[in-house]
Design brief:
Elements (H helix, E strand, L loop, with lengths): L3 E9 L6 H19 L4 E8 L3 H9 L4 H18 L6 E4 L3 H16 L3 E11 L4 E3 L18 E10 L5 H10 L4 E2 L1 H12 L5 E2 L1 E2 L7 E2 L2 E6 L1 H6 L1 H4 L11 H6 L5 E7 L3 H15 L6 E5 L2 E3 L14 H8 L1 H11 L6 E3 L1 H23 L18 H22 L3 H22 L1 H4 L6 H21 L5 H11 L38 H11 L10 H14 L19 H6 L7 H5 L3 E11 L7 E6 L6 E5 L7 H4 L3 E5 L5 E3 L2 E3 L2 E2 L1 E4 L2 E4 L14
Parallel strand pairs: 1-2, 1-12, 2-3, 7-13, 12-13, 14-15
Antiparallel strand pairs: 4-5, 4-6, 6-8, 9-11, 10-11, 16-17, 16-19, 17-18, 19-22, 20-21, 23-24
The chain binds one RNA strand of 77 nucleotides through α6, α13, α15, α16 and α20.
Length: about 675
Amino acid sequence: MKPFYVTTPIYYVNDKPHIGHAYSTAAADMLARYHRLRGQPTRFLTGLDEHGLKIERRAQELGQEPQAFVDSMVPPFEEAWQQLDITHDDFIRTTSARHKEAVQRLWKMLEAKGDIYLADYEDWYCVGCESFKTEKELLPGNLCPDHKKPVEKIKEQSYFFRLSAYAEPLLRYFDAHPDFVKPEGRFNEVKSFVRAGLRDLSVSRSSFSWGIPVPEQPEHVMYVWLDALTNYISALGGPAEPGVAPLYDQFWGEDANVIHIVGKDILRFHTIYWPAFLMSAGIRLPSQVWAHGWLTVNGEKMSKGLGNFLPPAPLVEAFGADVLRYYFLREVSFGQDGDFNHKNLIARYNNELGNGLGNLLNRILPFLKKFDGKVPDVGPLEGADAALASLAEGLAAQVRDNLDAVQLNRALDAIKELIDAANKYVNDEEPWNLSKSDETLGRLAQVAYVTLECVRFLSVMLAPVMPNKANELRAQLGLGALEPQVGVDAWPSRFGELPAGTAVVAGKPVFPKIDAKQEEALLARLVPVPEGVEGDAEKSSGADKKSAKKAPKGQADSGGAGAPSGADAAEGGVTDGPTTIEFDDFAKVDLRVGLVLTAEKVPKKDRLLRLEVDLGEPAPRQIVAGIAEHFTPEQMVGRRVVVVANLAPRKLAGLVSQGMVLATNTPTGLQLLAASDDVPPGTPAK
RNA sequence: GCCGAUGUAGCUCAGAUGGCUAGAGCGGGCGUUUCAUACGCGCUAGGUCAGUGGUUCGAUUCCACUCAUCGGCACCA
């Protein structure tokens, strides 16, 4: 049997766990549990990404050593995974000795291949992203486009990885492996990115030290992505020669099925950089990289400002790990964005699990009294019995195929079909009538058996998502808990294997209903209330959904928030203000009131407006401003704006921009800093 | 601007390699059973399958264009 290896992103320790992390991790856990049930050798890895300048600084702020700080972030994750019944086999930390050594081994392999070279690097650096930004990327005022924080000019020697050499090999690999990246749409994006050409990648830093030292060059630490991505093999003891690291040989061997579950925001790193590193080192690539979407909460993006950064713990307490896992894996089409909605969770719970599944068991168990509480012995199935049996077998195969293809929600769809079919069957066969006469007892036995066998099928198929509930169902059927064994495929395939004579154990409802009162109490306790929102919750959430989608990238990361550092964006702008400057620095800025004389769109540039601005000088200035998405040329002409007059001229879209128009970015849109009409053009603004 | 995707019932989405009455779940409405966690089952949505044009005996399904939405890249002093 093929070894199966599944990984989550290693989560950046800047955030405490929230449902975004929980979602990625639960998805991976569902896969791991499924493959174990199938009898495959299975390995499931999660862990933490603990290096980087951002961490170093955070620790400094807290007056802690970086190591102490990252150590303190481990327990919250371990607790969360325990609460959610996550069955990872290993927990990798990038600060662990085994990881550091592995990364250095990989480095040497890349170096030996000739893919590492030293060169000068100077550019703007964003601490939040832990990455360099080209000047063109920055927002007015040298702000990081993702974090809206000032970037810093850093010049240093840096080692580079010859990524440019791998564009062609990657494209060939993509062609040969049409399922390498999922969903398909994401794969297309990756391909077009690579087709556009790849630049060599800076893979070391000497400006800070919280990272893994480059071998023989300890003044350099490795670029965070090279460090972080390597976790997937370092946890197995790789890279290593055959025979040295058994786990690596098995789960990263040629025939292993290796799946990385990642957030859509870190897809590029996993599908371009990581494969390129591996190619360079002569190591096999992962089988598949699955990018899931992000969760909104009740229609709104998650953010600290809204107070809806949901930690999983209260949800687990309220609903249990099983139900929570079921909910978001069922609700969200895997690979697409989805919404975590408390009301909807309760509705699905009550309808699908309570009324549908739990009640199915409850409505048939009472009839077992007619058979001494034991599963009756029945002969070959015919008619409606056989029809349901073959439906169950067909659906089991379908669920299996869906799970093999990582179509988690589709698998749950198919499971729901069996629940419905079984309920309809009970309805049609009317066991309550059959139990009234001794003559129909034989038929009753058949109906009871078929129904119970359906529940047994369901108990196995649901075990990957709801391991505890599955076993509770089994307990009432008189069956033992599932215990996966390597080499033993426990997936249901043949209908009718529920042993006759098994003593059922009718118990309490497995999915007790949440009544209206309880629901109200739960919602009051669990749903974060955004400020200023009143009235119809549905309407407001619908409207917010739209705005959430339009949010700047990097601010809504949830599922992917676990990504190695760069992805983690929501944090920085919230807590840290801009650095302070001296008055002299400020005095250097020549701010003046300008009158916009003409304005026109720059052809082929969505965001650019070309302005001619009167600054009280002999000739008007040409200024190219990135405001076209917010203002039409007509709206600009005649306006008085505040201009940075002594900004070094630069070319934008082939046009020289001689200054910058100041604006403030509000939640409702861009606002220009203005002056009233009686201020003559050219008046200094300080 | 370039590239790609999407646009189907109130909501979330399936689907048709072109062909009689276009589907599911949820919600809403109506009916019905009584075994069960007042649960289940059945019926019910008058949908221009975004718009326009084309190919065709015939298109919602193929093609072109348009519009809208989303994503990637570019771009953003």
